[in-house]
Design brief:
Length: 105
């Protein structure tokens, strides 16, 4: 599965409602910023995400990827930002590796 196909599997009917509000862009930018600030993002079986951050903290979210609006855009930001994503919703707990060399993380 390509990353674009992965993102599309998490699109919701609510995403189109936010095309004019700027929320899609805000979520994408949030994903890019998070990718700079964390090592790994986890998507739990229920779709809620969390992250292990570079400062040693952990972030837990109530947002469900593929449930809440524009979370596919958040996911796209993570992917474009190069963070490693572990998706526990997939049967094999798919690891989407960070494409950046170790020294650039």
């Amino acid at each position: 599965m390509t990353t674009q196909e992965l993102v599309e599997t998490y699109r919701t009917p609510y995403d189109t409602q936010h095309e004019k509000t700027g929320y899609k862009t805000k979520q994408y930018q949030k994903g890019l910023e998070m990718a700079r600030d964390c090592y790994v993002v986890y998507i739990a079986r229920n779709g809620v995400w969390s992250s292990d951050n570079r400062d040693g903290s952990t972030t837990f979210s109530y947002e469900g990827i593929g449930y809440h609006a524009c979370t596919a855009d958040l996911l796209q930001g993570w992917l474009d930002g190069g963070v490693t994503i572990v998706d526990y919703r997939s049967e094999d707990h798919a690891l989407i590796p960070n494409p950046l060399p170790q020294e650039e993380r």
